Every structure is written in structure tokens, then in C-alpha cells.
Amino acid sequence: MLMSSEINLRPIYCLLRIVLLICTQNVVILMLPRKSFTESLKRTVSFTSLMTGYGMHGRGEDALSILAEMQKSSLSPDGVTFLVLLYACSHSGMVEQGLKYFETMDKDYGLVASSEHYACLIDLLGRGGRLTEAWEKITKMPAEPSSVVWVALLGACRTHSDVELAE
């Protein structure tokens, strides 16, 4: 039988921090010192979880600063991280930064954009009122656009009252 002194509880505490962050983004982001969180478990999921919380609440600059910390820790963003970055930029009005990260995915990290990445890109452009550019991106997609991509475009058309493009 293992004694409690023989069990390393640190990974469990780190996992609990991540779960708490995901479940209660508002409260944890304000209560949990970011430095403590990122130093406790230097893994892509930790940084991506923090970026998600900031992105959900329109704090895109904070999400991007987490990416910088992640890269300083010699961790590379993955496909989920880029989804979160696009989402954070979209919900923070940071269209140019979001476009830059979309291009960086393939060029710098060799990650192929999925339909979900394109949906976030279309949402980003749509929220920024750049519907023509969103349409152009859809027409140049390497694969058939998914329903999620079309929903993102239609939502932007509704927001900006562009009936012609919606049809």
C-alpha cells in the first residue's frame, strides 16, 4: 500500500487548476495568478485554457500575451490553440491579428487549417464587417465549406444586413 508521502500530488493539483479554469473562466481568471498557473504545468493545454478564458471575455490582448509566454516556454501552438486564438481575436475586434495567426498556422507551424479554423476565420472577418473578404476566403477554401462555415457567413450577413450576399 502506498503511503500518502509517496504519492506525488502535484500533477493532480495542476489538472484540477485546468478543470477549474475551464469550468469557471470568469472567477478563476481573476483569482488565479497567471504566473502560478503557467509555471505549475508548462503544457500546451494549460496555456490554451488560459487563452480560452481571455478570449471568451473579449480580452484578446491578454490571450496573445499568453501565446507569447507559451512560445517562451518552448511550446508550439497546436490546432486547438489556433482555434482559440482566432476566437479571441474575433471576440476582441482584432481582425488583422487574427488574419496574421491564420496565415502563420501553415507557414510557421505546418498546421493545415480545418473547417473549424475556416469557420473562425469567417466569423472574425464577419464581425469586422469584412463580408466580401469572408466570401473570397470561402471561395478559395481547399475543401468544400462545411455548414459551420456557411452559418458563420450567414450570421455576419444578418448582423450587417447584407441580404444580397446571404442569398
UniProtKB/TrEMBL annotation:
Keywords: Membrane, Repeat, Transmembrane, Transmembrane helix. The chain crosses the membrane at residues 12-32. The keyword ATP-binding does not apply. PROSITE patterns: PPR. The keyword Transmembrane helix applies. It comes from the Eukaryota. PPR repeats lie at residues 43-77. GO terms for biological process: RNA modification. GO terms for molecular function: RNA binding. Signal peptide: none annotated. This is Pentatricopeptide repeat-containing protein. It comes from Dendrobium nobile (Orchid).
